[in-house]
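Q: Hi! First time doing this. I have a protein sequence and I read that you can turn it into a structure. Is that right? Here it is:
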Amino acid sequence: MASSEHIKALLQSHLERDEDRFLSIALQVAAHEARSGHGKLAQDLRDIVQKARKPSTASGAVPIAKGLKDSSGLLYATTPKLRLTDLIAPPEVKDRLQRVIREQRHVAKLKNHGLTPRRKLLLVGPPGTGKTFTASILAGELGYPLFQVRLDALITKFMGETSAKLRQVFDALDEVRGVYFFDEFDALGSQRTTPNDVGEARRILNSFLQMIEQDQSNSLIVCASNHEEILDHALFRRFDDVVRYRLPRAAEIVTLFKDRLTAYVPGDFPWDRLAELADGLSSAEVTLVAQDAVKEMLIEDQDAITLPRLEAAVADRRGMAHDSNL
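A: Yes, that's right. Below is the predicted 3D structure, encoded as structure tokens:
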């Protein structure tokens, strides 16, 4: 049956008279039941939702929206359960995300006063600092499905086809409320004056600029890039907020390690030493170091993780990063 989070989200959206969110959550419940083996109940729920929706005039969006599936391969749908407390990030990042979540939870109240909640976000910063994780957190906090836009399916070599597929994605934004995540966004949004620019790339970017500016849906658009410096300047004013990520500092590194290793180290473990060792690693790399150390401890039937083992895991991870840059 539906989870407690689904039930609470359904009640909240009903009380706020937010029909789009109510129907979107109902589709999540249908997907949950399908995964649980309750195929007949899942299909019945989808049928009810489809009857409640107005018939779509955009025929290209129907395959994406129906049943949280994308038959064209443009979107990959999941239902994350993460929360903002799961993110280890600077206070200024978490404050910005909390503001987005609060505004989304009070969307009806804001709209009654002619105001629009933040829902178009640009996330920029080094790899492994939590940008992709943030998209899952926003979906989990709001009870929305997460739709990851598959750039390998979106961008093609045929003139005009990418813009047409991009229109399908924006039609889906209006059909099914959710968090729509464009990762490696610089593939779409790089500057139109770069030396290797071609006419088709300019057309794609212009199409995106036009679509995001005209979009009036209730979905969240989240775009992430590791290369802020190559993004076209015209993009930034199209977003409600730009959130900048950085590599973790000492206290954040210690928190990441403690979250994953406290159960495997002695009580007097020198955590501060780890902050020095892992300085310059991303949050994702710190997490992988911790996981590698735990796996080695278990495989070798040891009782605890030692500092030398973690030192070796950090060195190994730095070596991988160095090799990838050659």
